TrEMBL record:
Assigned keywords, A-Z: Methyltransferase, Transferase
Domain of life of the native organism: Bacteria
Coiled coil: none
Keyword Transferase carried by entry: yes
Name of the featured protein: Methyltransferase type 11
Pfam families xrefs: Methyltransf_11
Gene3D superfamilies given in the database record: Vaccinia Virus protein VP39
PANTHER family hit by this protein: 2-METHOXY-6-POLYPRENYL-1,4-BENZOQUINOL METHYLASE, MITOCHONDRIAL (PTHR43591:SF24), METHYLTRANSFERASE (PTHR43591)
Organism: Anaeromyxobacter dehalogenans (strain 2CP-C)
Domain Methyltransferase type: 36-133
GO MF terms held by the record: S-adenosylmethionine-dependent methyltransferase activity
SUPFAM superfamilies: S-adenosyl-L-methionine-dependent methyltransferases
Length: 205
């Protein structure tokens, strides 16, 4: 629902300074001529990453046509080149080793089989290619700290935690283990978004 009929609400909630700041941090972890943004959504994160890293070319992938249309509008408004592809994370439309890296914001927790998606992503990455993900954190953050971030931030975090409760959440060790289990090396994770999110990075051996 949030990624189809209610895409406008989702796009409004994530279009905020805290979300944008962590998207820029996410993008800084991955560089290259061909970086896939997995589950691009409304394009907020990918546009921030593209604007912050001129030496990196991002390509967005999503299953939702509504989100891809929003991402296209966001790219035009942000004056960035952002090729978009409609596709499935479990069957990436690229050859082996075609990608230099990949990012994902709020995508693994929604997938029916995140381990299989990471294995597929590893196939598509060249040796040495890096990945970086930002996912909902298991522990969350105190309500007072959430409210201190402002009404829009609080609404986004409450919605995000509500959605993740229906799917899954990760702590730092779990996300590192997920990446390592899919064959990535050097996995490390740390809390972000005031403790509501967990960011992680790893490399394809």
């Amino acid at each position: 629902m949030a990624f189809g009929p209610a895409a406008a609400v989702y796009a409004f909630l994530v279009d905020q300074p805290a979300w944008r700041e962590d998207c820029r941090a996410l993008g800084a972890l991955v560089r290259g001529a061909r970086v896939l943004d997995l589950g691009i959504g409304p394009g907020t994160g990918a546009v921030e990453m593209a604007r912050a890293a001129k030496d990196t070319r991002h390509v967005g992938l999503d299953r939702s046509a509504s989100m891809l249309r929003r991402a296209a509008r966001a790219a035009r408004a942000g004056a960035v080149t952002l090729p978009l592809v409609r596709g499935d994370a479990l069957r990436l439309p690229v050859r082996d080793g075609a990608l230099d890296g990949a990012t994902g914001h709020s995508v693994l927790y929604l997938l029916p089989d995140p381990a299989a998606a990471l294995e597929e992503l590893r196939r598509a990455l060249r040796p040495g290619g890096r990945v970086a993900f930002l996912e909902p954190r298991r522990q969350g953050a105190p309500l007072a700290a959430t409210l201190a971030g402002g009404a829009r931030f609080a609404a986004a975090m409450i919605l995000w935690r509500g959605m993740s409760r229906l799917h899954r959440r990760y702590d730092e060790a779990e996300l590192e283990s997920l990446l390592s289990g899919a064959g990535f090396t050097g996995a490390r994770a740390w809390p972000v978004l005031g403790g509501h999110g967990v960011m992680a990075t790893a490399e394809r051996a």
